[in-house]
Amino acid sequence: MFIATRRRSRSAAALVLLVAVLGALLAILAAQPAHADTSTADDEAVRCALVKPTDDDTISILGRICDRREKPPIAVPGVAVTVEDEDGNVIGEATSGEDGTFVIDLPGTAIEHLGKSYTVALDESTLPEGTKPEITSRTLSINIDNDQTVLFPIGDVGPSKPSKFTEALQLAVGGLVFSVILAMAALGLSMIFGTTGLTNFAHGELVTFGALAAFFVDRLPGRIEVGGAEITVIVGVFAAFVAGGVFGWLNDSALWRPLRRRGTGLVAMMIVSIGLSLFLRNIYQYFAGAQQRNYSQYGAVQPWEIGDILLTPKELIVILLGAAVLVAATSLLQFTRLGKATRAVADNPGLASATGINVERVIGIVWIGGAALAGLAGALLGVTQGFDFQIGFRILLLVFAAVVLGGLGTIWGAIVGAFVIGLFTELSTLFIDPEFKFVGALLLLIIILLIRPQGLLGRAQRIG
């Protein structure tokens, strides 16, 4: 009795802590402006703005030119910019506006530019007198059909390139953001696999569903405000979490539970999940279109400068919110009766049923929780980088890699594996071309499994 009471107290404390953290995060994010501040620093100088993402089917070069000698940096208007292809032909031109930004659309369809490189260059003769750019041209490799962003800081003579250490710190920030998102999706997949044995190839579509659910809320008429601050996208993110759980329950009730009752084998169910993935992906494309989508808020947030490192408020919020959700989920799995029942079902469903545990009820709750985590991951991924109908499919292989690397069906394995994969993919770009970063992560997976086949935490503790 004392042990049960203590466990309930721990669970209640964890839930209270989670609510407090979420409340604080909501207050911080709601206080941030939805778009870059373009107010004037004085009558002549304009603060350097963040360029607004486009919402079309073309690939655009989004850039800004800022004078970093001022605090905050000011815009540098009237600078001529060109884009050249690999043969040196000019395929686009623009002039920076009053806020220092420019947009150059690459001609043709997005697919024509995949795998190609383009050079974005400044015309130094159009720069203000007494200034010198830190770098006059940048080469961009088009690996995905998203807009590309480029920054040209100018001012006094400065280093042409940041040090490897500075680059590593900046990449680690992006790696942490991606890792917590990947960890939520991976934990959801690991929970479902542990309790049902199903290798669900449609899990990526649960991630995409979350991004679409948040986008649907964001596109509803009107704005959602609290105390004069707009929180439409924040509400959309939490709606994605709830809608993801409902969608997971529908998946299990309408498809997987009937198949389990009919005694369908795991291989056959895995093939069904592949078909479900293709079906849902085409449904998403039909209703949402194939173009890149962005939410109405937080697409352009003024970053904080911490030394040479740039950190945006939304990146910090994603890291803290993701960490809070992961702590809450693992605490529920470890310290509650439901968590104990989940581990029992994962270890031996027949024995768990014999001891009075409702196995089907536990599996249904796991589907709700796993899909809710995937939906939240999709919404946060959309906030950080935008999304399209294939966003979940693109990261599915990395989600599987994280689960296998950490150890199938373990509480912490999926999370540890996600952080290893997420940080490695970003930091590896210090030494290899960015287009090969996912290949490097999968190579790391192979090497570790050759040494430790059960994964990093394969026998630590099963959750299902």
Can you describe this structure?
The chain has 464 residues and is α+β, with helices and mostly antiparallel strands. The protein has two domains: 60-160, Sandwich (Immunoglobulin-like), CATH 2.60.40; 167-451, ABC transporter involved in vitamin B12 uptake, BtuC, CATH 1.10.3470. The chain is 53% helix and 12% strand. Strands 1, 2, 5, 7 and 9 form a five-stranded mixed beta sheet that branches. It has a four-stranded antiparallel beta sheet with strand order 4-3-6-8, with no helix packed on it. A hairpin with a 5-residue loop joins β3 (80-84) and β4. α3 (203-218) packs across α9 (359-385). It is elongated and about 80 Å long. Mean pLDDT is 82; it is low at 1-8, 25-44 and 460-464.
Mean pLDDT: 82
CATH architecture of the largest domain: Orthogonal Bundle
Low-confidence spans: pLDDT under 50, at least 5 residues?
1-8, 25-44, 460-464
Query: Structurally, how many domains make up the residues?
Result: 2
What's the total number of strands? 13
In percent, how helical is the residue content?
Answer: 40-55%
- Taken in chain order, the helices and strands follow as HEEEEEEEEEHHEEHHEEHHHHHHH
Give the strand content.
5-15%
Alpha-carbon distance between the two ends: 26 Å
Spatial shape:
elongated
